[in-house]
Amino acid sequence: MRLGATFYVRNAFPWLGQHFGGQKIASTLSPGIGGVLSWGGRMPAKTAAAISRLRGLPRWNLEDGFLRSVGLGKAGAVPLSIVVDDLGLPVDASRPSRLERLIAGAEDAGDLGKAIREQIVRNRLSKYNHLPHRAPVIERTTKRRILLVDQVVGDVSVGKALGSHASFERMLSDALASGAQCVIRTHPDVMAGHRKGYLTKEIAGKSDVIFLNDAISVASVLDVVDEVWTVSSQFGFDALLRGIPVRCYAAPFYAGWGVTEDQFGVYAKASLAGRRTKRRTVDQIAAAALSLYPTYRDPAGWRQIDIFRAIELIVAQQRAETRS
């Protein structure tokens, strides 16, 4: 099937056609296309949605996979995985997504998820894997240590997960009242200077909090914390894979299944009513999110691979970059 996408998508992701039979992705206005590809949830995605409705064409929602690459996408790193969802975005808690349905149906996927989880943890991986593994410089304490995960202002995953700026304020307020040592972790795009965060240095400076912006890996941070509190960041999923308790102030894909402490607002509770009613294990969620949902390809020749081969490629690239 010939597919179309907005100019932004075709320009920003020139490799995208490799995931669809090696075709050249056409314009959304081209005659003879059989469907529309939409990336993320910003204006180009809204434009694609409007055009698909007007033309009566099916639309597929695309995003990076949860195990993406060594480097950042904004730095030009090509992803090893993308997700293609005919129902919605994985970050959108206001409506069902294909990921949500896969998690709900993952009864028999626990063994697969366990094998994936063990490989992810053993190799100290996350979505991005460009930062070094070393212990963060944090003041020693005998208190329980809570990691508060910052996210970039305007991050689609915040609003789509039914969170807001107020969610971050409530998370910070609750943490300060807990008596724990509170550590704020910035997003990689904020550290790289590409974006601004909700929890800024100014907020941290007015509070009894440690602002951690060391350029170190997710695994290194998770090594030294007792709990992770987040609005909707994948950091919470990374923590669950490592057996760390997670509290959510919005509804990311891994919340609402009984593995997180959920601090949902009224609207989030209403939106999820009748959905995410099954209890799922971390391994079942991992199988759905990291294997059943995404498509993996080796950028060297665009051959389709599985997650275990993707892990091997990321680890090999890390070693090669360390040697150089």
Summing up helix and strand content along with how strands pair, one would put the structural category as alpha/beta
Taken as a percent bin, the fraction of beta residues is 15-25%
Q: What's the structural domain tally?
A: 2
Query: What's the alpha carbon Rg, rounded to whole Å?
Result: 20 Å
How many β-strand stretches?
13
Cα separation of the termini:
42 Å
What portion of residues is helical?
Answer: 25-40%
Give the integer mean of the pLDDT values.
93
Largest sheet descriptor: 7 strands, mixed
N-to-C SSE string, H for helix and E for strand: EHEEHEEHHEHHEHHEHEHEEHHEEH
The quaternary organization reads as single chain
Give the neighbour order of strands across the main sheet.
Answer: 2-1-3-4-5-12-13
pLDDT < 50 stretches: none
In CATH, what is the class of the largest domain? Alpha Beta
List the total number of helices. Answer: 13
Per CATH, which architecture of the largest domain?
3-Layer(aba) Sandwich
Q: Which fold name is given in CATH as the topology of the largest domain?
A: Rossmann fold
Q: What is the overall shape?
A: globular
Protein name: Capsular biosynthesis protein
Pfam families: Capsule_synth (PF05159)
InterPro entries: Capsule_polysaccharide_synth
